[in-house]
Specification:
single chain, 116 residues, 2 domains, two-stranded parallel ribbon
Length: 116
């Protein structure tokens, strides 16, 4: 059929083997891909070098709130209590109405929170 020299046949067999192996690897990767998980909003800082999850102060529980810089258990409880008695925060700045949260603490947490 084809008049190929031994070296040409070897190259052809090698290329076909590489193609088959490549197709098998691609099929394996496609079938074993982990599902994509989305977990809320993220904050990119330092040109994307650091990825941080923003905490929604309208839905966050105590555990999420205490993960904020400068917010302890009592402060987290005050945030939840304020939210329950006054309704959802209209903006992140409204968190300064919670007793104990002044401009200084707000400046520490403002990049880590959202009020969606």
């Amino acid at each position: 059929m084809f008049d190929l020299k031994r070296a040409e046949r070897s190259i052809l067999v090698f290329l076909l083997a590489a193609l088959v192996i490549g197709l098998c690897v691609a099929a394996y990767q496609k079938s074993h891909r982990s599902p994509e998980v989305r977990v809320g909003k993220f904050n990119l800082e330092n040109d994307g070098a650091f990825l941080r999850h923003k905490i929604d102060i309208n839905t966050a529980g105590l555990e999420d709130l205490v993960s904020l810089k400068g917010v302890g258990g009592k402060m987290a409880a005050r945030i939840v209590e304020y939210r329950l008695s006054h309704g959802a925060f209209a903006s992140i700045e409204e968190i300064k109405n919670v007793k104990g949260i002044g401009q200084s603490l707000f400046d520490k947490i403002k990049n880590d929170i959202t009020a969606d």
